[in-house]
């Protein structure tokens, strides 16, 4: 059975923008899929649909065989526990300690939320949080406030928080887009190491093609809300890959030319 | 670029009909509002019965008051101080309970944390009612219901604090960025988990700042509440004034001034540290 199944997914926003147009693909257990596409290609919308922060207009998404598109927030919780997320902007709680941020990752596991608050958490949970921090190499910074860390460190704390959740699936939304290239590499390496050693399924949004090729097992590329590439990393057609961005560039240029012409005409 | 030169050959007066005029006559509504405004101004000044005689007489009486108030009477300082302490306690207890109640109220009243939009509207209306009815009127109501004394004052401050804090807490909660809450939601956290684990910690510094403003506000209003019998220094001031013991009244005013000043200094210092 596929871990994630996306079938005929479409999303039309109230203003008529068609963000997703009949998108279908599957992710097998333990597979690392990189989702590529430029701004406005629909990849963020697709991601928000997979994470249920947005409802698609049509089609369905199955995670572990459960269709999540029609579930209420309460019914989604058991699915969410299985799915860990890493965000572009880390989404840590800045004025809390690194330790507390990691502990919060266990919120889905405990009965009451207060059981993840650092002063009240059980000894096992506190130890587990330190282990997760150790795994990302930051156990010595546990006492620091989250916003005192560098971007790369913050993303590693976010990965530790995701580990605390003990997920089967990892969804990463541009995890390195707000990091410098060196820190970005480190974060990708760490994330992939962890994912491989635990045999997790990953869907990772990226916009850098070279990194996508380097890390992904498979690449799914979106353009104007449609899947234009869905290939195993070894079967990739370089020309097609190149066209993914080049064509858009040409279109952008055209648009700019038209805009310029309109401006001059209006003066 | 050819298009630009086309424009040069055009007659510039062509667009005159679309050019905004230098002055547009005000609309009927503006006229009406101005007339009503001026009418109230004239009537208000008339009713106040302002005459040169009264103003000069007022200045003279003020001088007489100061004359009999100076030097301030220090004989009852300890009694006055204990009253001021009571006032401070009314303000403190009222603000603490008010702030504690404001937090859940604000959560119910914020669009991103409310369980249902109807509940949000309901709590918002109650909070704005608490805020729009002046504290002296609340004090009168509570004096009637629980009798004279500090309890009426405390209840008044609680209501006043909720009206103030719940509104600002809720505004802060609605501004909170979605990301950290979504991060917790994605771990499978409950609604209460998300609120207690991300919304409250993120808003905390702002909540503390608002609460400190609330206590400054509460001290000032607790002083006044005594005038309608809700306990504290206001009662002393009222008595001293009506018995025309102006030297004692001045002493009370000076002490109030000092205490309010101290509280404001302390709260400013704490606020700077937290934010």
From TrEMBL, chain A:
Q: Which UniProt keywords apply?
A: ATP-binding, Cell membrane, Membrane, Nucleotide-binding, Phosphonate transport, Translocase, Transport
Its gene name is: phnC
Could you tell me which Pfam families the record lists for this protein?
A: ABC_tran (PF00005)
UniProt xrefs under CDD domains: ABC_PhnC_transporter
The molecular function terms in GO held by this entry are: ATP binding
Q: Which Gene3D superfamilies match?
A: P-loop containing nucleotide triphosphate hydrolases
Taxonomy of origin reads: Bacteria, Bacillati, Bacillota, Bacilli, Bacillales
| Record-annotated membrane-spanning stretches | none
Per the UniProt entry, what species is this protein from, by scientific name?
Answer: Evansella alkalicola
SUPFAM superfamilies, alphabetized? P-loop containing nucleoside triphosphate hydrolases
Which segments constitute the ABC transporter domain? Answer: 4-249
**Name by which UniProt lists this protein:** Phosphonate ABC transporter ATP-binding protein
């Amino acid at each position: 059975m596929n871990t994630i199944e996306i079938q005929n997914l479409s999303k039309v926003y109230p203003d008529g923008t068609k963000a997703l147009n009949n998108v279908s693909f599957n992710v097998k257990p333990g597979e690392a899929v990189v989702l590529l596409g430029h701004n406005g290609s629909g990849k963020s919308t697709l991601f928000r649909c997979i994470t249920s922060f947005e409802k698609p207009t049509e089609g369905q998404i199955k995670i572990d065989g459960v269709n999540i598109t029609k579930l209420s927030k309460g019914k989604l919780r058991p699915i969410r526990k299985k799915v860990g997320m890493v965000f572009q902007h880390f989404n840590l709680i800045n004025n809390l300690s690194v330790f507390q941020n990691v502990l919060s990752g266990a919120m889905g596991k405990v009965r009451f939320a207060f059981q993840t608050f650092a002063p009240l958490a059980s000894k096992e949970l506190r130890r587990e949080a330190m282990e997760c921090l150790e795994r990302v190499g930051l156990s010595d910074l546990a006492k620091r406030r989250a916003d005192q860390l560098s971007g790369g460190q913050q993303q590693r704390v976010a990965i530790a928080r995701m580990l605390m959740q003990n997920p089967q699936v990892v969804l990463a939304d541009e995890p390195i887009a707000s990091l410098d290239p060196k820190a970005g590499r480190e974060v990708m390496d760490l994330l992939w190491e962890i994912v491989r050693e635990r045999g997790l399924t990953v869907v990772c949004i990226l916009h850098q093609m070279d990194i996508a090729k380097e890390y992904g097992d498979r690449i799914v590329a979106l353009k104007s809300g449609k899947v234009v590439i869905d290939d195993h990393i070894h079967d990739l057609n370089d020309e097609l890959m190149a066209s993914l961005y080049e064509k858009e560039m040409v279109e952008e240029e055209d648009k700019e030319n038209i805009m310029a012409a309109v401006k001059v005409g209006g003066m | 670029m050819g298009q630009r030169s086309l424009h040069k050959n055009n007659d510039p007066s062509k667009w005159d009909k679309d050019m905004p005029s230098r002055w547009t006559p005000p609309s009927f509504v503006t006229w009406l509002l101005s007339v009503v405004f001026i009418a109230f101004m004239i009537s208000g000044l008339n009713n106040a019965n302002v005459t040169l005689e009264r103003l000069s007489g007022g200045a003279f009486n003020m001088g007489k008051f100061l004359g009999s108030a100076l030097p301030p009477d220090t004989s009852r300082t300890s009694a006055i101080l204990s009253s001021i302490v009571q006032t401070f306690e009314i303000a403190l207890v009222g603000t603490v309970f008010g702030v504690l109640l404001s937090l859940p109220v604000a959560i119910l009243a914020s669009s991103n944390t409310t369980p249902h939009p109807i509940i949000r509207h309901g709590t918002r209306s109650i909070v704005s009612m608490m805020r729009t009815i002046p504290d002296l009127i609340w004090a009168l109501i509570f004096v009637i219901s629980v009798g004279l004394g500090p309890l009426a004052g405390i209840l008044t401050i609680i209501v006043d604090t909720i009206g103030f804090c719940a509104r600002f807490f809720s505004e802060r909660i609605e501004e909170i960025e979605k990301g950290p809450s979504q991060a917790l939601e994605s771990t499978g956290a409950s609604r209460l988990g998300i609120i207690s684990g991300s919304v409250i910690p993120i808003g905390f510094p702002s909540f503390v700042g608002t609460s400190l403003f609330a206590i400054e506000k509460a001290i000032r209003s607790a002083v006044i509440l005594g005038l309608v019998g809700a306990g504290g220094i206001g009662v002393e001031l009222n008595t001293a004034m009506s018995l025309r013991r102006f030297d004692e009244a001045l002493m009370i005013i000076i002490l109030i001034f000092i205490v309010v000043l101290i509280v404001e200094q302390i709260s400013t210092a704490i606020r700077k540290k937290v934010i």
